[in-house]
Amino acid sequence: MVLGVLTLLIVPAASGEEMAGPLWSIAVGGGVTSTAVTTDGSLTVAGTRDAGSVRIFDENGTEVWNYPTGCPVYQVSISGDGRFVAAASDKVRLFDRNGQIISNFDTGFFAYSTALSADGNYLAAGYDDSTIALYTAGGQEFWTAELDDDAVSLSLSSDGSYLAAGSKDERLYFFDNRGVPLWSYETGKTVMGVSVSPEGEYVAAGSLDKVIYFLDQEGVLLWRYIVGERVFDVSVSAGGKYVAAAAGTGLLLLDREGNLVWRYDAGNTVQGAAITPDGRRIALGVGSGAPAVHFLEGADVPDLAEGSESPDAWSLRAASDPYLMRAFIMADTGEVPTIAHDFDGVSIAGIVREEADPATPVTVRLTVGPEWTAAHGGQEGVVIVAARPDSLDSVPSLVETIPTSFVGYDPEGRLVFEGRSPYALTAYGIIAASEKEEGRTPGGGLVPLITGDGIFRLPLPQTPPRSASGG
């Protein structure tokens, strides 16, 4: 499906202020082609052309490590916590946080693009035979797809649910994590930069046609911003709140409505832009003249009042739960199931055991939003999965389904499901079942468990069943 719906056209206005100088700036040998940054902005990675290198800097601009590739690096990516770094060059190299190579993804063709999911579980690669592929960080190939030309930019949502690809064939492509092409959007020239918002709700693209495009998850164009200069890279913060774009010799920061917030002039052609999910920090790569990495303040995000929570905090909070999985495969089939994610309202509501013995199997309660539940067969289509304890350190984890029952609603209206695990404490998730799972049983008589993070996870009170559309 090719989409080309224009709902709003925004032309640059003079209202955007000129941004002050960077927090730090580091000269590098060879033009910077791409930048990436960790969730908290503590690490920045840059790829360079000419002889080629992958370079990592800390929050003060001090170089942490430098890996020479011997040929140009076209795109770099880093996991949210900095555990993994990926670089596309003669092949895709996956590094650990210390610069040691973990894996090589080599098809015999040059790699023009790569992307890591923020959770570090998925890696995407685009090669110069017009193919793109999705792998686990451990090297297992999930799927490949062929485009009409080479993909020169890739971006994954934080949990790997969605992949965006920008191609020389002048199109922006959007796939799910099973390789199903959901839509494509045609621009006027090569799509040099793409970015999926962390939760997968928005997609930005920058093209050599000198335009920035901003679309929703369904492929509907929300706005486009005519820059008047070639756009080499874009990056979207959580919730689509901000879009950073490297265009011409400057960095542009736009808000969710396509208004210019500010512009920073680097004096030379810029080719890499990466913004943190909260919009507070931006890493910019200068590709010519005086090649450098500039690290700038992003949006002036106000501090939250005590006890309040930002609109984007849900997914960040959920992702911090060590017992909630966001990427896994079925142990019996090796397939990737239909997974409910953080932005679908999934969270750990309680982990309890019936006896004091730590080796005793537990009962777990998870929440999921009513919209996701209704879209995947209702209450009977929701199944909890538990990770096999011996696979917790593997990528991805192996899971199996456990008997699941619906037990009520939490205060936010999310549905609460309970599952009895055959294991002691492990990690858990929710999937959609194609058929009704047998053996669902209600919980009861459970003893609260203090988990490893020191938090009491108490059973929720059961509430009368109601339909997903109920008030």
TrEMBL record:
Against PANTHER family, the record matches this protein to:
POC1 CENTRIOLAR PROTEIN HOMOLOG, WD REPEAT-CONTAINING PROTEIN 55
Q: Which residues form the Pyrrolo-quinoline quinone repeat domain?
A: 91-227
Q: Which SMART domains match?
A: PQQ, WD40
The organism's place on the tree of life at top rank: Archaea
One Pfam family linked to the record? PQQ_2
What is the official name of this protein in its record? WD40 repeat domain-containing protein
**Could you tell me the keywords of this UniProt record?**
Repeat, WD repeat
